[in-house]
Amino acid sequence: MKYRIIDLFSGAGGMTLGFVDGRFEGGFDCILAVDNDRAAIATHEKFFGGESVPGNIEDWLKKTKKIPQADIVIGGPPCQGFSLLNKNREGDERRALWEPYMDIVKASGAKVFVMENVKELLKSTEFDDIRARAEKLGFKIVADVLNAADYGAPQTRRRAVIVGWNEKAGVTPPEFPPRKTHSAPTVKDDLPNWVTVKEAIGDLPSPVGTEIRDSEAPLNLHFGRNPTKMSLARYKVVPPGGNRFDLQKNAPELTPPCWLRKPSGGTDLFGRLWWDRPSVTIRTEFFKPEKGRYLHPVKHRPITHREAARLMGFPDDFPFTGSKTEIAKQIGNAVPPPLAKAIAKMVKDMLKTKKTAKAA
User: Fold this and answer.
1) Cα of 78 vs its chain's centroid, Å
2) In Å, what is the CA distance from 217 to each residue of 46, 196, 220, 222, 336?
3) What sign for the dihedral angle of Cα 146, 150, 152, 155?
4) pLDDT digit string (tens) for the chain, length 360 residues
5) What is the DSSP string of 301-357?
6) DSSP-assigned letter for residue 31
7) What is the rounded distance in angstroms from the CA atom of residue 152 to the CA atom of residue 131?
8) How far is CA 87 from the centre of its chain?
9) Can you tell me whether residue 145 is helix, strand or coil?
10) CB of 314 within 8 A of CB of 328?
11) Cα–Cα distance between 130 and 341 in angstroms, integer?
């Protein structure tokens, strides 16, 4: 018998994949997914089946007659309200979307919930509110910031993870944070080193065309862009591991005036990935080098959709559905499946212990 999952704010299903797919953890079945991104929920339904609800979660809650019973609720309420990229975080109504999430935890009879979000959540008043609501429902919680690279994803994505469990339902407290599977090269232990960009994408040939291709994976999403002559000239002067400051130093005549006027700032803009390190965080506009460190380590181009998906930890056969922009959004918003795998194993151990105790 498989454990039943409800995935809220599911996106394409990176978290679900880590729980459900046997190449990751397995032993779970997703019975319901809810997301207001129609392309993402179409992807989720295509791969996982189960009931898929496209639309606003609160509207759906008002209309639905019954919430299905589940063992676990997973998901990440939209994080833009907490993100440092949002300069007007105070009063952002998206902060409140954890409330319908907890309503469904209660109505589904879930014994465990896992909430993923940006790391800033743990320093917010909303985290205190989430804790208070969870405790009112009989849950204890733990929380920490986890680095996806520590769990086998070729990406140093740091996210807040909150785990709640109902001890009255016989669930055992988790081993949290989950046991790491990989370590930074500077750490002296017996674990394998972080997975690098080269290990993840180094076998791919040069991309072809600028559109989604009618071919088998991985080449279907391995397409490029049509850079202007100016953009191509800019790419060529950024050295391995370089960024916009190298562009400014090597070719000030090619540097946008706004960057020339700002001699300091983030070091990832217009940066190249490193072959021998994991990727930086993959966001939804990874195909735009001006948005971050998204230039290929050695080739004069941004990374492709396939490369971004691999740097998330998605297998090549995962069937992303939609336009180029819609698929990019699904990739950038996902939970890296290898991180989800570690969380799934932890949750399974929590529930297995309960079964063993009952049998005894």
Assistant:
1) 12
2) 16, 21, 5, 9, 19
3) positive
4) 899 999 999 999 999 999 999 999 999 999 999 999 999 999 999 999 999 999 999 999 999 989 999 999 999 988 555 544 444 445 555 447 999 999 999 999 999 999 999 999 999 989 999 999 999 999 999 999 999 999 999 999 999 999 999 989 989 999 999 999 999 999 999 999 999 999 999 999 999 999 999 999 999 999 999 999 999 999 999 999 999 999 999 999 999 998 898 878 888 999 999 999 999 999 999 999 999 999 999 999 999 999 999 999 999 999 999 999 999 999 999 999 999 999 999 999 999 865 544 444
5) SBPPHHHHHHHHT--TT----S-HHHHHHHHHHSPPHHHHHHHHHHHHHHHHHHHHH
6) E
7) 29
8) 22
9) strand
10) no
11) 24
CATH class of 197-333: alpha beta
Cis ω on the peptide bond leading into residue 177 (within 30° of 0)?
yes
Task: Report the C-alpha gap between 345 and 178 in whole angstroms.
Answer: 8
Q: Which CATH class is domain 3-182+336-355?
A: alpha beta
Query: Which residues are identified as catalytic?
Result: 79
Residue 9 is which amino acid? F
Q: Which residues contact 89 (CB under 8 A, 6 or more apart)?
A: 81, 82, 83
- What is the spatial order of strands in the sheet that 72-75 belongs to? 51-54, 28-35, 3-8, 72-75, 112-118, 158-166, 139-147
Q: Which stretches does DSSP call E strand in the chain?
A: 3-8, 28-35, 51-54, 72-75, 112-118, 139-147, 158-166
Between CA 221 and CA 237 the distance in angstroms is 27
Domain ranges in the chain?
Answer: 3-182+336-355, 197-333
Among residues 9, 12, 48, the alpha carbon closest in space to that of 31 is found at 48
Angle at 115 between CA 113 and CA 116, to 5 degrees: 150
List all residues 6 or more positions away from 144 whose beta carbon is below 8 Å from its beta carbon.
122, 160, 161, 176, 177
Whether this prediction's pTM lies above 0.70 is answered by yes
Tokens for 73, please give them. 């609720």
270 DSSP assignment = T
> Distance between CA 344 and CA 161 in Å, rounded?
12
